[in-house]
């Protein structure tokens, strides 16, 4: 039956499938569909660069134009993964350069990218268009110079929040004069000043530039120069938003913003001087995305500005907005989908602002489309969480960080099990959850019972026993990523649910109670998992088998154990674990 | 399963219920809770205090204890400076630079600190020989707190931006500065760099021990090539001594971009101006203080 359609017809049909899930489903129908599909797949996404090798990818998909790779585990963002752990992109670039001369897009997240890699990219792919480096590190502005100089058709250069060694700002001048193709440029993570003239000329000659995110070093007085040359901008990230208070600066700015009729997104705002916020009032009503999370403005200027943006869909802001500001937000921004509130002074035990659970409750009750929340605060109650759950059954991402670990319900001093239980029970579409506060095994029972669509779960300083982990691993059917720190979870739950780990992308456990012996056993029994032990203080076998490992990272893979591990990472596979135990026996432990 | 009390109970109570003694999150003298279970080798590479305190004798592998048993020099001011280094029992990575509290970032609630013998001395740098004593930590400022690594979960980019904001807003006095200060540490000849948070240390001695832990695997070879001179010598060794005898020098890059020798200025001044650290080969240190060169010459 499948043969009744000529291949090129099928290929044409498949070209409408953009989601990996759909393409993967199609390739399982029959051998000929598998063959046709693999030849025409153009985009691949690899959520864990160690789950597969470049050779395997290239063998299956011979003509790929866009590759997306992720490296380090998510907790690397919070310094829990030691430097030198891995995630090197260079071997991938070497293989991709050989196999895909027509590659156009590379997107990397949490990977180590060297100048060598960037240079290789810039010279290997003649039609290279898109480079996105999110939370990457290992490269300098010299690498960026190669990209600028050699990629003739570059459309997108996004440095995310990468750690770049800033040797100089001259790299930007390497864009040749005939480069007019830029659509998106994000250099907000760079510390040093880029040549403003070069930037101005670049912006002026790229008529399709839609996204421009500047770095802090670009002064506010010069912003109008850029805006006038790019009135078609859709997303703008300002540089430092501060200047001496002068009326001509203000009026230039206001006039420039008046000309930006397409502007929908604003970010940047470092060192914000609130007096200059009104310069943007003309664009506020069109703004759908606003990132004020680096803006240290306080109320009333802050809330006044935010309330002007009646069509706001996404707001990232510091806790200077306070409960009062969030109540105003709830009243004026009925289209809000996503709210992130970051702490202005996270390391101070005392609250410096009046931001409590009330703000979040207000927004949950007032904004019917709210589906994604990241909220840092210092107190929470079960009552508030229940109210949020009841108001927002459409919640998809809920990440709550109560700054003090193990903080109980501040009203009743009970654990927050009931509150989070209400969240998972009412929000049936919940895909991502991060919890904090005082939590017992009971909350995990609720999660295992109700959170059937949960894909990613982050747990810290929670639970009482292995039962907690067992509930999660046995109950959460859609779970893909689980990251745990400082919880009393040990061997039993892990070993009892070993096969579950093959259905997930990865599991991270640090400062828990998983023993070295259990890791060895898991590694031996599950050959399709890489069980990696991270022990910075010494080899895991220098103690008894019952000694807990410092950190554990388990992920499914078809590429076998990796070969680029630093001295403090050990893979528990059959060979390694038996050789380690031989050493232990010899020493007479 | 029995209902576990919901409130924050002390770790030892919990352990009775859950029988997790071995993996108890406790701050105790390293090895003390294990000494009755096993003699001989300690758990860690740096088991100097285990050896000294429990008289279990040296590890069979001298290289493993290359930095062990320092009885004089900087690290004595800390007595078992290794903080968590010797307690491989599932403890959280608590940076105890300023406080001895285990879980809570606040000053109060000494949960799990019942058997504390080793505490950070926050006295400044002058080395004092301290023989395995309990050091009550003294001079912490009220604003200081134990900082748990990676908590609250905020990305480095944001933390560094916050740090810059706070330092710009701060008055002249007061140490209520940013919460962390990560700097890169490189060692000539090592294949990769490390990062340390200078805010978690309160003295050069602190920093020294942390660095010795991080880089021991690279320096072992170097030291060995100078010849091991027996157990007494091993017991004297630690990074500063190692650096004295070997060809390495600890240097840092300051705000002006100059490479300076570590140890000349008061600790606070150092953390304020240090941008990165480098464990430099002595042969390259010729631009630094004359005494460094003398040290290098004196070895050969």
TrEMBL record, chain A:
GO terms for cellular component: nucleus. GO terms for biological process: auxin-activated signaling pathway; pollen maturation. GO terms for molecular function: auxin binding. Its main location: nucleus. Keywords: Auxin signaling pathway, Developmental protein, Nucleus, Ubl conjugation pathway. SMART domains: FBOX, LRR_CC. Pfam families: F-box_5 (PF18511), Transp_inhibit (PF18791). It is found in: Nucleus. It comes from the Eukaryota. The keyword Nucleus applies. Residues 5-46 form the F-box domain. This is Protein TRANSPORT INHIBITOR RESPONSE 1. It comes from Forsythia ovata.
UniProtKB/TrEMBL annotation, chain B:
This is Auxin-responsive protein. It holds the Pfam family AUX_IAA. Residues 180-282 form the PB1 domain. Belongs to the Aux/IAA family. One of its GO terms (cellular component) is nucleus. It comes from Forsythia ovata. Keywords: Auxin signaling pathway, Nucleus, Repressor, Transcription, Transcription regulation. Aux/IAA proteins are short-lived transcriptional factors that function as repressors of early auxin response genes at low auxin concentrations. It is found in: Nucleus. GO terms for biological process: auxin-activated signaling pathway. Residues 121-145 are annotated as: Disordered. InterPro entries: AUX/IAA_dom, AUX_IAA, PB1-like.
